[in-house]
Structure formats: structure tokens, C-alpha cells
Amino acid sequence: MTSYVALLRAVNVGGTGKLPMGELKAIGEAAGFTDVRTYIASGNLLFTSKLAEKAVKTALERLLQDHAGKPVGVMVRTAAELAAVLAANPFPEAAGNRVVAIFLDAPPAATTLRDVTGAKDERLALGRREIYVHYGDGMADSRLKIPAGKAGTARNMNTVAQLAELAAAR
């Protein structure tokens, strides 16, 4: 059994994509996953499964679309991959709530950062299947636009650390 974390895109953020975490847990169980639990209300599902990552993603996206009536993006990482995302944080000196990892399905193109607009004091770096962003003054007033990140979902390093710890304990 592999320990996974599924990160849903645009769930319970800014009044969009309402999905109670009890319903998300039930969806994970309906997919046949075991040791299913959620973490905070932003669409984080922890579970174990014998399925490979692609099959996990496909099953969750199908069930979520049936439930929501529209596509819901899902990024999947194993417990080890999530720990590696945390360890690879290129801005470890920054506060965890000021650094996000934007999780993607595939590695970002080497040219990804050339397409970024609106940068002020933000720092960016590419990861394996992530884009790291340090928001020096916080996200609230940022005008940063990252086209490659539109298909992904972001979590701050505090959340990544907690998810990595919970996933490792499974």
C-alpha cells in the first residue's frame, strides 16, 4: 500500500468549489482507498491505496466530477514525494506561510519563469513538479501571474509540512 496525498484545486477558496470535507472523505472511501482522512477545508485528502498514482488521480477526478457536476483538478503525491517537496524548498529561511509550492501534474518547462508577469518582490524557483514562490510582502497585495500555475494548486509550506508528517505516519 502506498500513502498518498491528493490536493484538490479551487476547493473552498474564495467562495468557490464548495465541498465539505466529510463528503471528500466519503468520495475517497468510495474510490476504494483506505485510511482516508482530510486535513483542513482546502481540499487535502490523505489515504493509502494499492493503485498507481495515475489510477488514483483518474478515479478521484471521475468521482469528483460526478459529485460536483464539473471537473475538479487533482494533484497527487506520495508521502515520500511530499516530503521531498518540503526538503527542496529553495526559500527555507522564509516564513512557511509566505512560501507556496504550486503543485503541477508534470515538470514545469524550463521557460516557465519567463512567462511570469507582475512580479514585485516575489522570488520563484522550479521544482520537480512544482513551482515555488516566496511572497516577500505576502500574497494579499501581490500582482504575480504565473500562467503555468493555472492548472495546478498551491499550498503553503506550513500546510505541506503538516501533510508530509501526516502522510508519513500512515
From TrEMBL:
SUPFAM superfamilies this protein is in? SP0830-like
Tell me which Pfam families the record gives.
DUF1697
Domain of life (superkingdom): Bacteria
Question: What protein is this chain from?
Answer: DUF1697 domain-containing protein
Specify the species.
Rhodanobacter ginsengisoli
